Amino acid sequence: MKKKWLAALSLILTVILVIAGCGSNTDKAKEKKESKSEKTEANSGASEASYTELSKLKKKYDIVIVGAGGAGMTAALEAKEKGMNPVIFEKMPVAGGNTSKASSGMNASETKFQKEQGIKDSNDLFYEETLAGGHGTNDKAMLRYFVDHSASAIDWLDSKGIRLNNITITGGMNEKRTHRPEDGSAVGQYLVDGLLKNVKEEQIPIFVNANVVDILEKDGRADGVKVRFNDTTEKTVNSSAVVVTTGGFGASKEMIEKARPDLKNYVTTNQEGSTGDGIKMIEKLGGTTVDMDQIQVHPTVQQDKSYLIGEAVRGEGAILVDKDGKRFVNEMDTRDNVTAAINKLGDKSAYLIFDAGVKDRVKAIKQYEEMGVVKKADSIEALAKEINMSGDTLEATVDTWNQAVKDKKDTAFNRTTGMDHDLSKAPFYAIKIGPGIHYTMGGVKINTNTEVLNKDGKPIPGLFAAGEVTGGLHGENRIGGNSVAEIIIFGREAGVKSAEFVEKN
Fold it and tell me: In this model, does residue 269 exceed pLDDT 50?
């Protein structure tokens, strides 16, 4: 009897434990599901909260900023710092513009990060190398202001929690001055995220799907804008000053063909919003343009995806080879020279070859892998097979290159930079590339105060511009890393000078 009673008791306890266990697992699953749901909602909420609801639009602001790329958000932050009430209008569904696609870094000289790392550089050297890169055609006053304010722009970003202390080098430069995020990742999205965070913290209204279709004027000065929201509702918003930061025209087939018919069939790395709107609106107000035919073709663009493979890949040691596996150019020459060398090849394409060391130092490569454009193998011979190339030829090319790195002397093409590391760390990688439209050096004419100039060289009152919408700074060829510097340096100046204008008027 006692045994039967113990067996029954044991059975009851087992059932209780099973039920309790199931309940525990169910609760845990429920908690996990709720946690995941909360996380998703939080992320969604944060994304939506980054932009301002249309119901909060006011009829007048101190300063209207057209375009929410790096230059626009920078200008807004500086204007706010000066006590202004700015607003940002962005025609695309998200902020960022072409800034989001920047990958290599931001050039600056005499920075605190260079000094910390023992890199000897000078503003004068930065000036001379940029002038040489632009074939001596750069606006010299703009260039001088640019280099002399580059270090303070790095400091300003750092004060906003945007730290660019990982330094590399780009083509046309002889010193390491290309500043990147600490982990070596692509600079663009990091910069956009950081600026957007600051814009939100400063409670600066930023409207997306807000297409500015016209800049208004009254008594000869900029007086506000007409904005079309969500392609339906059009509203007039007045202001005491207008800052145009709409980017270039690299995604406008019409404007590209008009300026450079020879480039009409090239792929473009530009985001679809880069259609020259700001240039057209400023011309209607009497503004003038400069260097409109100077359109930069970037040498390393993945053709199927029209995606830029950043210069930092070469800056950290990659080489370029033709379809036979041979080097054919100084990979760190200026973009126009490298592009010309690729265009001389039979199929106007080449391969970037690099190793695991380069991949470790350039975090953007992970993104290229996710896009499916990177070939990978455990040896150079196997990599050559992956890309239908002679293994013996590619191995000989890499061996010769590694010896050049060891000797610090490239007898084949006189490359002198991006030679800190050889290509010997497996696995090995290749990306097929060709030239693509990347940047429009031309745009509206401004002075160092970022005031838009008319045909007589006089400022149009209340109208300012910064970033790729402007022209003259880069001359006939832009050095990699200078556009990111431009949007911060002149974006800051546009914010400050537009605020000063409003105060005086």
Answer: yes
